[in-house]
Write a structure and sequence with these properties.
The complex is a heterodimer of chains A (about 650) and B (about 325). Helix content of chain A is about 35%, strand content about 10%. By secondary structure, chain A is α+β, with helices and mostly antiparallel strands. Chain A folds into 2 domains: about 5-95, Pleckstrin-homology domain (PH domain)/Phosphotyrosine-binding domain (PTB) (PH-domain like), CATH 2.30.29; about 125-490, no CATH class. Chain B is mainly alpha-helical and about 325 residues long. In chain B, helix 9 runs antiparallel to helix 10. The interface between A and B is large, with 84 and 79 residues. Chain B: One of its GO terms (molecular function) is protein phosphatase binding. Chain B: Pfam families: Myotub-related (PF06602).
């Protein structure tokens, strides 16, 4: 469709005129620019809602909201065309079969061997070995080898040595969805562990010998403690209500040596609504400080983030400081349980704060343990009540931690944002379906590519320049301040306002420091080489006094420009109301002047050079993964990497 | 950019030829200027009743007046006190923290100050028009706007020495009554008289700029904190008294040491430098969206939460930037 306008959300006067294209996998807007021909690509998988708004004199507005928080405001001149686009998009964004998803047609032109290697990059067996398992206390069990015991669990689960197959099977029958207690994390320093499960089917008074034995087995696997914590991450009221439905929680009287604890994280529906409300705040036009703070509080979003974090902190403390094992569950053990276990693991083990370790963590606690990616993130058209930003919240917890501990993570904010992006993009096969069983049935690894390999290939973009493996912050357990600490939780504008260039500075500290680091390293290497040469020269010309040595000046200034100052920025609309600037005639009434909005015509352009595309791979599919940031397969972002940076130290 | 106090128009709409001539001389034939009045239109009008007022359009035809009300005086001090209390309150739940923060209104004031300074800067840089800034007395919000606008516009004000010069010019010599304004800080239980944290608000705004433009200010947060400390209690005479006249009478220059002299010693100076600094010749336009304005943790949470991890991060940045 031609002559479509793409509006800029923050600056209502900025609109680009161009052509809108709909393909099998993307929505593409190409600007009628002279030099730049800027393109905006959006994957259908990313689109969460399409809103047709009332026709105005200028055309028919169409608002596209994306799961990665991009918002496209289009204005299509003809109503007929607008309607066609709308109907098409409705169909395109509600796939019925997995095969419709982009990952089945995405072709990065790797051979079969490379595809396989990509999938092998993260190996959970290796991970449990790294933890020190199997050992005297823990073993691998193949009781679920055909998914016969629990179809949402992986084929390989790790259980206490004293948990026989009989106990496991019995326990699984007493757990919602048959998700029996299994190992998530083992701390070899003190044998404490984090196990996870779903809620017991205890109702008001039911008992199960095998389930009680299972918990005992977990306790016995840690000789350093005579009890375990059982943490129910639900609010007490919800858990109690579940009892009426024949489910519920563990009774301390029945299970010997447990200390039971509610943590009170709300359910997926509350979280879905919370995000919705927060996004509404983000969509406010020129909100006041009060509007923003009230709106943010009203959404409850940061409160929920803190609740998840507090739960993770509690569990990490129990393991690291008390040396006590913890069994975590919620209702089904695939949402809050996953969040809390992975936050706790991250706090406990510095390995998970490395890039590779983080991939492993997600693979372990989210992918292998059957988090319902399809239902939660809408790979396919499904029940809207199943949609919830569960992993988004976990990712935000990681970001909040990165802000508090800037030296502790090997990866940077961009890494997190890209992972979130690809969980929704369905460009790679890692986050499809609801369980390992479903993915194997679909032969995902043979038909799609792994995101981890792609990120790993581009890992230079994702490094945190402040990370040093020998730094005190990277050693051991992270101990975030628990209280008072409300103020430590910030609004993540790098994620929720990701595409709003006006909000983000163009000066990226991360990129600058990475460049400095690289150059320093290069210089040091050169220095080494020269030193060696000098030594050799001196050796070979011992008697010759005319040896000249040329040494690098160690303190030579790095000739780096601190990013693109010229991209700096343009003034925004610094007024509250959006009345246009009055005419240039100085004679006006004696009234307060209306808002001063200056025209943006002669402003310095804030758009970076887009001609530097990412690695051109070839074919139509390849274009779809073109992005100006040279990071390979990312959707369009209007500016280069710079706008993605928000690594600010307080 | 010019600054003044309010014209004494009064209820009878008095005129003053000299004042009109003075402002007329600033502008060329056909040029226009902007007057940024830091009072609301209503407050400015009411000021007439007590002898003050605004510049009437008819008498100052080339000047367009814009009202951008900025908080000052008692309400601003209370905002400050409330914020400090809120930060110290360990009993607030997360689900009430943001509304508590909002009720202090401090961040609203930061946003308003930055927006107004940006407006002044926009007038000069984009419209290429002269700007006159005044409130009532020209010693509080006026100076906040003019000083901040210069940091935004002028790269030389972003260097360490340039910034010091700016403070000397726009705050000290311009007659901001430090003695009255900084008599008591947020914890004091004394009855408030003329205290108001305008200077702190200015420093907060500068901090917001440094956060949004991490490469563009030659000085670090540490300098801002030191200035804050010294405005309220100092071993140096720099922030003493309320104006140059008083400083002369008290013989401040003869009897005290200058803060700047101490800060500029090489051993001291390097503590206040920003390791990421690189001269940025452009105007820096901050975002004043609420998401872009943050609570200045380094100041308001200074004694409440450990800064260890952030300090370590800065040490690392320093190490990297020095290429060691």
């Amino acid at each position: 469709v031609e002559n479509v306008r793409l509006l800029d959300r923050l600056s209502s006067r900025k609109a680009a005129l161009g052509t809108l294209y709909l393909t099998a996998t993307h929505v593409i807007f190409v600007e009628n620019g002279s030099e730049t021909r800027k393109e905006t690509w959006v994957l259908h998988s990313q689109i969460s809602s399409i809103e047709k708004q009332a026709t105005t004199a200028t055309g028919c507005p169409l608002l596209i909201r994306c799961k990665n928080f991009q918002i496209m405001q289009l204005v299509i001149p003809q109503e007929r065309d607008c309607h066609d686009v709308y109907i098409s998009l409705i169909r395109l964004t509600r796939p019925v079969k997995y095969e419709e998803l982009y990952c089945f047609s995405f072709n990065p032109k790797l051979d079969k061997e490379e595809r396989e290697q990509g999938w092998k990059l993260v190996n959970l067996n290796d991970e449990y070995n790294r933890m020190g398992i199997p050992n005297n206390y823990w073993q691998i069990s193949d009781v679920n080898r055909d998914y016969g015991v629990c179809d949402s669990y992986p084929t390989e689960v790790y259980v206490p040595k004293s948990a026989t197959a009989h106990i496991i099977v019995g326990s699984s029958k007493f757990r919602s969805r048959r998700r029996f207690p299994a190992l998530s994390y083992y701390c070899k320093d003190n044998n404490a562990s984090i196990c996870r499960s779903s809620q017991p089917l205890s109702g008001f008074s039911a008992r199960c010998l095998e389930d009680e034995q299972m918990l005992q087995a977990i306790r016995k696997a840690n000789p350093g403690s005579d009890f375990i914590y059982v943490v129910d991450t639900r609010p007490k009221l919800n858990a109690m209500a579940n009892r009426a439905a024949g489910k519920g929680y563990e009774n301390e009287d029945n299970y010997s040596n447990i200390k039971f604890q509610f943590i009170g994280i709300e359910n997926i529906h509350v979280m879905r609504n919370s995000l919705q409300k927060m996004l509404e705040v983000c969509e406010l036009k020129s909100p006041s400080m009060s509007d923003f703070l009230w709106g943010l509080e009203n959404s409850g979003w940061l409160k929920h983030i803190k609740a998840i974090m507090d739960a993770g902190i509690f569990i990490a403390k129990a393991v690291a400081e008390e040396g006590v094992s913890v069994l975590v569950h919620c209702s089904d053990g695939w949402d809050r349980t996953a969040q809390v276990c992975s936050v706790a693991s991250l706090l406990l083990d510095p390995y998970y704060r490395t890039m590779k370790g983080f991939m492993v963590l997600i693979e372990k606690d989210w992918v292998s343990f059957g988090h319902k990616f399809n239902h939660r993130y809408g790979n396919l058209d499904g029940d809207p009540k199943e949609i919830s930003p569960v992993i988004d919240q976990f990712i935000e917890c990681v970001w909040q931690l990165m802000e508090q501990f800037p030296c502790a993570f090997e990866f940077n904010e961009r890494f997190l944002i890209h992972i979130q992006h690809h969980i929704y993009s369905c460009q790679f096969g890692n986050f499809l379906c609801n369980s390992q069983k479903e993915r194997r049935e679909l032969k995902i690894q043979e038909r799609t590519y792994s995101l981890w390999a792609h990120l790993w290939k581009n890992r230079a973009d994702y490094l945190n320049p402040l990370y040093r493996s020998d730094h005190s912050q990277t050693q051991g357990t992270l101990r975030p301040q628990m209280a008072p600490c409300n103020f430590l939780y910030k609004f993540w504008s790098g994620m929720y306002n990701r595409f709003e260039k006006g909000l983000h500075p163009r000066q990226s500290v991360t990129d600058y420091l990475m460049a400095v680091k690289e150059e320093t390293q290069q210089l040091e290497e050169e220095l080494e080489v020269l030193r060696e040469r000098l030594v050799n020269l001196q050796k070979s010309q011992l008697t010759d006094n005319k040896v000249k040595s040329k040494q690098q000046d160690q303190s030579k200034q790095l000739g780096l420009s601190t990013s693109n100052n010229s991209l700096a920025n343009t003034p925004q609309e610094y007024s509250n109301d959006l009345k246009s600037f009055p005419s240039r005639s100085p004679s006006q009434g004696d009234e307060e002047d209306s808002a001063l909005i200056l025209t943006q015509d002669n402003l310095k352009s804030s758009d970076p050079d887009l001609s530097a595309n990412s690695d051109q791979e070839s074919g139509v599919e390849d274009l779809s993964c073109r992005s100006p940031s040279g990071g390979g397969c990312l959707p369009s972002e209007d500016s280069g990497k710079d706008s993605d940076e928000a690594l600010f130290l307080a | 950019m010019l600054r003044s106090s309010q014209p004494l128009t009064g209820p009878n709409r008095k005129r003053c030829r000299e004042d009109e001539m003075l402002l007329g001389m600033v502008l060329d034939e056909g040029e226009r200027g902007f007057i940024i009045d830091t009072r609301s239109a209503q407050a400015a009008k009411q000021a007439r009743m007590t002898g003050g007022g605004t510049e009437p359009k008819s008498s100052y035809p080339q000047w367009r007046r814009l009202h951008r009300p900025l908080e000052r005086g008692r309400p601003l001090q209370e905002s400050f006190i409330k914020l400090v209390e809120a930060c110290n309150d360990t009993s607030i739940n997360m689900d009430r923290w943001l509304s508590r923060l909002e009720s202090c209104r401090w961040l609203n004031h930061v946003k308003a100050a930055l927006s107004t300074a940006c407006l002044a800067a926009q007038c000069m840089d984009r419209e290429e028009a002269s700007v006159l800034v005044h409130g009532t007395e020209g010693t509080d919000t006026t100076l906040l706007v003019t000083a901040l606008a210069q940091v935004i516009l002028d790269p030389s004000c972003r260097t360490l020495t340039g910034f010091q010069g700016l403070l000397e010019r726009e705050w000290i010599e311009a007659g901001h009554p430090f003695h009255l304004r900084c008599a008591h800080s947020a914890y004091s239980h004394a009855r408030l008289k003329q205290e108001a944290p305008l200077f702190l608000l200015f420093l907060d705004c500068v901090w917001q700029l440094s956060r949004q433009f991490p490469f563009s200010l030659e000085f670090s947060e540490r300098l801002l904190l030191t200035l804050f400390d010294n405005a309220y209690a100092s071993a140096y005479g720099t922030f003493l008294c309320n104006n140059e006249k008083e400083r002369c009478l008290c013989k401040v220059k003869e009897n005290t040491h200058s803060l700047w002299a101490w800060l500029s010693q090489p051993g001291e100076k390097k503590k206040y430098l920003n390791p990421l600094y690189s001269h940025n010749a452009l105007v820096i336009w901050p975002s004043v969206e609420p998401q872009s304005i943050q609570l200045w943790q380094g100041l308001f949470l200074r004694w409440i939460r450990s800064s260890q991890y952030l300090d370590e991060a800065w040490a690392e940045i320093q190490r990297l930037a020095e290429g060691s």
